[in-house]
């Protein structure tokens, strides 16, 4: 049963990730998807949900929505292009927004 919940959350999160990529170009889509996933995870962590719903929302939905592999690829490309400041800035903004989103989500 847990697999079904994770798969269902993953389907919805993956679809939302695809939709964001269609509406917002490039790195901004990755930044938005990761930030939203962090916010949702922050909210879910503070809710007293059953294990199945936590799997649905965090492992499934947030796992598919967040795109840490895309982030790594984008930062790696910036490093390969010797755009050190842009790589560091992009990573820093991602981390700051991610941690802030989790914190804000936990406050709700």
Automatic annotation (TrEMBL):
Catalytic activity: fluoride(in) = fluoride(out)
Annotated positions binding Na(+): 63, 66
GO biological-process terms attached to the record: cellular detoxification of fluoride
Activity regulation note: Na(+) is not transported, but it plays an essential structural role and its presence is essential for fluoride channel function.
Gene responsible for this protein: fluC
Keywords from the named record: Cell membrane, Ion channel, Ion transport, Membrane, Metal-binding, Sodium, Transmembrane, Transmembrane helix, Transport
TM spans (from-to): 6-24, 31-50, 56-75, 87-106
Membrane topology: Multi-pass membrane protein
Family named by the database record: Belongs to the fluoride channel Fluc/FEX (TC 1.A.43) family.
Location(s), subcellular: Cell membrane
Domain of life: Bacteria
Any GO CC annotation of this UniProt entry: plasma membrane
GO MF term list: fluoride channel activity; metal ion binding
Name listed for the protein in its UniProt record: Fluoride-specific ion channel FluC
Metal-binding listed as a keyword: yes
UniProt-listed InterPro entries: FluC
Signal peptide extent: none
